């Protein structure tokens, strides 16, 4: 019954994603992944219930599916975090394709012959099944590690493009990836029942957060049809997004095409300071590098170079330091004694207590409360 519930939930969540308005590219990956998971659960249920004797039509098709889950996880995270790879995405599915090709001999058998093979633990195909199953667990664990590496890079990258991280740090995907790792460990231990219970929980988790997750980067919202999941369409999609801000870890590579002279750096930096002093854009809690660059009439890559070179910090730290300075100027004013620390922090541009306390301590070495005590500032509630 639990597996039937998992199948229904998978299909329901996939349907929600297929019909979701303003779908992101990641949704076009998650929806077929959930559909595949539903089929995997269905095939497993047919096997454990011995229903395959009356319904042998799916026999053999479930065997290579575990080789597909790892690539789907990796590609889903790569898309959400905008860490595109120039290699065609379909390369990740080559092992599964090879496995299906190796099973062609089995697929050509009659239904009655397939049933006999399954009833006798794969008789006649033992060596072939061993070859196919051998890379399944290593492949799954490798993709778990690769996915965690992507998420680690993402945490570093968003600090260079956004002034907030709370809604876009994708912590839920870290837990999801660890959950995938636990599923693979369960497979190693050979407990099928616990494995598929974990899969059911995995479906609920990824479905709930996946549907809620919006595109983080400006180029991630699309309504192109699902047929885009082909090598040609994916290539076109990447080419269409070449103008979007790419995430590049190497600083030298990042700026080599937009090297600015000292005069240009000084000029853009001056414009930036005047804009911040005049309009206090840092008070927008969701200010991004891309939005600020548009206001200055420069590329986001150029602005990032200016901030890194002239301020000696990334965009996230630059904006939050301005917010802290604004907080300090505001909190000392006598007319603001009736306000709380948090309300003044929100007015300065912070969007959470955690972010405010973390960044304030990082910049000053003091907690906000300790700072107020040091400056002999009395507020209504120093929390």
From TrEMBL:
InterPro entries, per the entry: Homeodomain-like_sf, HTH_AraC
Recorded GO MF terms: DNA-binding transcription factor activity; sequence-specific DNA binding
Domain of life per record: Bacteria
Transmembrane segments: 29-48, 89-111, 131-151, 172-189, 195-211
UniProt entry keywords in alphabetical sequence: DNA-binding, Membrane, Transcription, Transcription regulation, Transmembrane, Transmembrane helix
The keyword Membrane is assigned to this record: yes
Classification via PROSITE patterns: HTH_ARAC_FAMILY_2
Protein name: Helix-turn-helix domain-containing protein
Originating organism: Pedobacter polaris
């Amino acid at each position: 019954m639990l597996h039937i519930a998992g199948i229904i939930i998978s299909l329901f969540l996939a349907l929600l994603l297929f019909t979701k308005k303003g779908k992101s590219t990641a949704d076009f990956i998650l929806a077929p992944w959930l559909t595949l998971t539903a089929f995997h659960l269905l095939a497993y249920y047919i096997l454990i219930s011995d229903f395959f004797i009356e319904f042998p039509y799916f026999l053999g098709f479930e065997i290579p599916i575990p080789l597909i889950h790892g690539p789907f996880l990796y590609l889903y995270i790569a898309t959400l975090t905008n860490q595109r790879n120039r290699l065609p995405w379909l390369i990740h599915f080559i092992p599964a394709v090879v496995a299906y090709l190796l099973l062609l001999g089995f697929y050509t058998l009659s239904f009655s012959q397939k049933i006999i093979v399954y009833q006798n633990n794969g008789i006649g195909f033992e060596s072939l099944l061993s070859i196919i199953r051998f890379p399944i667990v290593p492949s799954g664990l490798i993709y778990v590690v690769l996915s965690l590496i992507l998420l680690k890079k993402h945490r570093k990258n968003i600090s260079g493009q956004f002034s907030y991280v709370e809604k876009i740090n994708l912590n839920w995907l870290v837990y999801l990836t660890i959950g995938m790792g636990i599923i693979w460990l369960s497979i190693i231990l050979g407990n099928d029942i616990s494995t598929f219970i974990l899969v059911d929980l995995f479906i609920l988790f990824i479905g709930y957060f996946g549907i809620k997750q919006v595109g983080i980067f400006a180029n991630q919202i699309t309504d192109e049809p699902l047929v885009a999941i082909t090598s040609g369409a994916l290539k076109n999609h990447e080419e269409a997004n070449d103008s979007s801000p790419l995430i590049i870890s190497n600083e030298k590579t990042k700026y080599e095409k937009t090297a600015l002279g000292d005069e240009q750096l000084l000029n853009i930096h001056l414009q930036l300071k005047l804009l911040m002093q005049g309009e206090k854009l840092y008070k927008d809690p969701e200010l991004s590098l891309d939005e600020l660059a548009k206001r200055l009439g420069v590329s986001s890559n150029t602005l990032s170079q200016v901030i890194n070179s002239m301020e000696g910090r990334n965009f996230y730290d630059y904006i939050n330091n301005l917010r802290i300075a604004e907080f300090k100027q505001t909190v000392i004013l006598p007319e603001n004694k009736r306000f709380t620390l948090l309300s003044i922090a929100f007015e300065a541009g912070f969007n959470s207590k955690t972010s405010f306390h973390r960044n304030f301590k990082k910049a000053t070495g003091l907690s906000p409360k300790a700072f107020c005590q040091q400056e002999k500032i009395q507020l209504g509630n120093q929390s």
